[in-house]
Amino acid sequence: MRWNRHAHRYGSGGGWQEYVPVAARIARAEKKAAKRAKAAGRQPDPVTITGREIATTFWGKSWCRNLECYSDFSNRLPRGRTYARNGSVVDLLLTRGRIEAVVAGSTAYDVAISIAALPPRAWRAIKADCATLIGSLVDLLSGRVADDVMRRLARPGDGMFPAPRDVKAKCSCPDGARLCKHLAAVLYAIGHRLDTRPELLFVLRGVDQTELVTAATKESVSRAVRGSAAHALADDDLAGIFGIEIAGGEQPPAARRARRPVAKAKKPAKTPKRKGTATPATSKPKPTSKPAKRSVRKPRPAVTEQPDDSRSGRGSSRRG
After folding, report:
1. Rounded Cα–Cα distance for residues 87 and 202 (Å)
2. Pair (232, 100) in one structural domain
3. Would the pTM count as exceeding 0.85?
4. What is the pLDDT of residues 223-253, one digit of tens each?
5. Nearest C-alpha neighbor of 103 from the set 92, 90, 85, 86
6. Domain range for residue 240?
7. Do 204 and 94 touch, CB atoms closer than 8 A?
8. Strand partners, 9
9. 171 and 27 both lie in a single domain
10. Residue 279 counted as domain residue
11. Would residue 32 count as lying in a domain?
């Protein structure tokens, strides 16, 4: 009879176990992941990789390259890549400094990984080195930044990615190695997750990615104001032109001379009133009206003189 190497596997208890296809293992692990996620009030978040490339963006590729540059991880990484590609990581949850996952194997295994927070001194150094080289948060997370920034963030030892000493991992499988294939699968799955959610790297390391953009903005403004740029004006020039004091320095003499108080314009003096003269009252002009009709005066009749009685004959008759 021909031996089928897939028919049985040597179990942890010293006996042989029946071979279970990968699809059946994954289905069994998915049930466990769904039950655990429901208890936590969330939905399971599996890692599904299409094609041969586990990661395709700057953040995902940098994470995977960081894993492969350490000899502590090298001996178990190939098996982990296989598990990650075939969908064995049925649930992956990333929070601040902690990773939890369910991986399909001979049974469903629980994986827990803790990532040390980035030391404050290292984070300050990163912000200082990347100042003025990051345009926006969108550019940062999408990887559209200068090559110098990428190299600085991915630099082994003092970059954003953890070293082996920063990683503490535990798997429920019987393998006693520091890094089993299930843990390696989860580490590669993180690289794939960073392709679509790069901000999770900053969450894992316990830092705020917006501080990088804020530091870059402050540095750019400071250089523009202080004259580091070729087109910036010095403090003395600003004070001399605008007659203002620049914070952080003594005001130049030219500026002090320019800030002499301007004399206020005097109001015109009032003309004294003379006795016996009345101030003409100003009145609003009356509205014009139609001209009145002129009355035509009629001529009076001529008066005829009456004859004097003394001169008439009546007088002589009265005397006789």
Report:
1. 25
2. no
3. no
4. 444 444 444 444 454 444 345 554 554 555 5
5. 90
6. 227-258
7. yes
8. 17
9. yes
10. no
11. yes
